[in-house]
Amino acid sequence: MLTPEQKTIVKATVPALEAHGETITRTFYASMFAAHPELLNIFNPANQKTGKQARSLAASVLAYAAHIDHPEVLGGMVGRIAHKHVSLEVRAEHYPIVGKHLLGAIAEVLGDAATPEILDAWAAAYGELADLMIGVEQGMYDAGAEQKGGWRDFRPFRVARKLAESSVITSFVLEPVDGQPLPAYQPGQYLSLKVKVPGQENWQIRQYSLSDAPSADHYRISVKREAGGLISGHLHDTVQEGDELLVHVPAGDFVLQDSERPVVLLSGGVGITPVLAMLHSLIRQGSSRPVTFVHAAQNGSVHAFRDDVNALASQYPHVRKLVFYTDTNDSDQPGTHHDAAGLIHLDALRPVLPQGDAEYYYCGPSGFVAAVEGILDELKVPAERRFTETFGPSQSFDVVIHG
Prior knowledge:
The chain is an alpha/beta fold.
C-alpha cells in the first residue's frame, strides 16, 4: 500500500524524471529485452529504434507521478493503454518483469540520487498501478471473449479480398477461417495482426484501424505502405488473397460517442481509416446527425476512398465534405479531386462546420493532429467534445487525461 510519505516522494521525483525520463526508459527497454528476448514478439522494434516507445512510456510515467494524489483523472490514460496492451496480449505475468527493470533503470540513471526511500516509494507506486492495469485489462479480455462471436488470443482469418485504394494504401477484407459470425465493434477501433515475416526471428504485432462499418462476416482494414515498414511492406507485397493472418479481437477507445450532436470527422493521410468507419456507421444506422468529413492528403495519387466519400456526400444531404491537397500535381482538379490547396486551415474550414455544439473526431500524423488542435483552440471547442488518435505510441497523455 502506497503511504502518504511515499506519495510525497513520488511527486517530488517528477522533475528528475522529466530531466532523465527518456534515458531511463531507453535503459529500461534495453535491460528488459536483454533479459527477456521473448518480449520482442510483443513490442514494435521500429518504435524502439525511433525512441517513440521510450517517449511514450516516459509520458505515461510522468502523468502517473504528477496525478498520484488523484488517480481518478488518469481514467482516460489507463483505458487507452489497456486497450493497446490487450491488443498485444500483455498479461499479468509481464508486469513484475517490467517493474523489476524499470526500477533498475531508475537506479542506474539517477545513481546516488536514487535513495532506498525513493526506490521503495516507486516500487509501491508501480505495484498499485500494475494492479489497476491488470484488473482493467482482465475485464477487457473477458468481455472480448464472452461477447457473441468473441475469442481470446489471436484467431486465424483468411484474406478474402485485397484492394488497392491508392498508390500507398491497400485494403484487406478478412474473413474468419472457422466461418463463425464476428462480434460487432465500435467504429474507430482497430485490429491487431500477428505476423511472422520470412527470414525474421520474431513475430511482429501491428494495429490497423477498421475502415468500414461493422459486418457479421468480415472485417476490413486499410494499410499504408510505410517507408522501410517491415510489416506494411510484407502485407502489400507478399500477402495475397487466400492467405491466412492471425487477428486479435477489435480494441481501441477512439470511438463515436452516443449522442445526437453534429459530427466533424477530420483526417490526414491514412488517418482516414477510422473516421471512414465512423461515417459509414452513421449512415447505415440511419442517423440524421449532420456530418462534416474533412480530409487532408498530399495529392490525388495517395488520396484513398475519394470516390466513396464523394458518393456519400452526393447521396446524403446531411453529409458535407472538404478535401485539402498539400502538394497538388497536374492531374488534380480543384472542385473535383480536392476543394482547397495547402495545409488545413480555419478560414476554409469554417464555412462547412455545422451549427451547434459539434463533436470533433480527428486522426492522422502528429503534425496534422497538432494543426487540428490549434484550430479547435481557436474555435474554443472544449476538451469534452474532442476525440483523437495519433498513429504510433502516444507522446503525450494530456488530451487523454483531461479530455
